[in-house]
Amino acid sequence: MGKLGNYVAAAGLATAIMVIAGLGQASARDVVQVDGAFQAGTIVVKTSERRLYYVIGGGQAIRYPVAVGMPGKEWSGQTHVARKEVNPVWQPPDEVRRDKPTLPYLVPPGPSNPLGPRAMVLAHGQYAIHGTNKRESIGTRASYGCIRMYNEDVVDLFEQVGIGTPVVVMR
Q1: How close are the terminal C-alpha atoms of the chain, in Å?
Q2: What's residue 1's pLDDT?
Q3: What is the DSSP letter of 72?
Q4: Measured between alpha carbons, how far is 39 from 113 in angstroms, rounded to an integer?
Q5: Are the C-beta atoms of 157 and 149 separated by less than 8 Å?
Q6: Which pLDDT value is given to residue 165?
Q7: Which of 52, 25, 26 is nearest to 161 (CA)?
Q8: What is the C-alpha to C-alpha distance for residues 16 and 10, in angstroms, rounded to an integer?
Q9: Beta strand segments in 42-136, E
Q10: 146 is catalytic
Q11: Is the confidence at residue 11, as pLDDT, over 80?
């Protein structure tokens, strides 16, 4: 085996070791240090970072990558989780239907549903924190104002929060 072959073999072995040790890729969610401005049990979305933080206390939060509102669809403010839905049915809002008139009136649960396997509907019903059928959109400005998460992350968060959980969206 030549030098190139040795290099490729060594790189492959190093990659295998990193994957086994969990060092290959950062997980979708990480526990990180946060300032103490928010109480444990609060969801904080920082749209400029495209990250959602679920504050767990002790100056720590679980950080998740998210997709946020596209330009012109961003918002900020305080609200709370008003409703939780497993395998939600999606009814495209009027604004989305105006832009995409061929959308069906209702989209049942399944791979075509843009809400993914879970949705946490925010107070006043206009926006939700939900999964996605477009994984590639996570980390971008892609929605009409909802907060999209990887499906495995939204299931994780869904299990931790309850009705009334405070949500703070910051730019």
Answers
A1: 54
A2: 52
A3: T
A4: 33
A5: yes
A6: 98
A7: 52
A8: 10
A9: 43-46, 51-57, 60-69, 77-86, 118-122, 128-130
A10: yes
A11: no
* Amino acid letter, 52: L
Give the Cα separation of 116 and 73 in Å (integer).
21
**The length of the chain, given as a count of residues:** 171
Cα four-point dihedral sign 136, 141, 146, 148: positive
Given 55, 130, 143, 161, which residue is catalytic?
130
Tokens linked to 136 = 């590639």
pLDDT score of 141: 97
Q: How far is CA 133 from CA 81, 95, 123, 142, 144, in A?
A: 22, 20, 23, 12, 15
Contact by Cβ (8 Å): 66, 50: yes
DSSP character at residue 10 = H
Write down the catalytic residue from 44, 138, 146, 157. Answer: 146
Question: pTM of the entire structure?
Answer: 0.82
Cα four-point dihedral sign 131, 134, 135, 137: negative
Residue with tokens 């072995």: 13
pLDDT tens digits along 35-67: 888 999 999 999 999 999 999 999 999 999 999
CA separation for the pair 160, 19 (Å, rounded): 28
80 is catalytic: no
Q: Scanning the structure block, which residue is given the tokens 């444990």?
A: 40
